[in-house]
Design brief:
By secondary structure, this protein is α+β, with helices and mostly antiparallel strands. α1 crosses α2. The model has no long low-confidence stretch (mean pLDDT about 95). It has a single domain, classed as Irregular (HU Protein, Chain A), CATH 4.10.520. The strands form two sheets. A three-stranded antiparallel sheet has the order 1-2-5. Strands 3-4 form a two-stranded antiparallel ribbon. It is elongated. β1 and β2 form a beta hairpin.
Length: about 90
Amino acid sequence: MTKEALVEAVAKVCDSKAQAARAVDAMLDAISKALAAGQKVTITGFGTFMVSQRAARTGRNPQTGESISIPAMKVPRFKAGKALKNAVK
């Protein structure tokens, strides 16, 4: 499902597609800002978005076979909630 398809699905419940697009954009923006601030976002029944620290490691350039150093970084993570897991089964 693309963002456009999500907006169309939300538009079926809202009064207009423009309203649905604003709602989807606002939700995604709020989640992004919370993660950038290092906060955890929990949506009951759906799941939890969080920021995780990935350790530095040594990788390999597939073209040359040369070893390269990959720095530590923060990455977004998602853990599905129980209701979402059951819905997917």
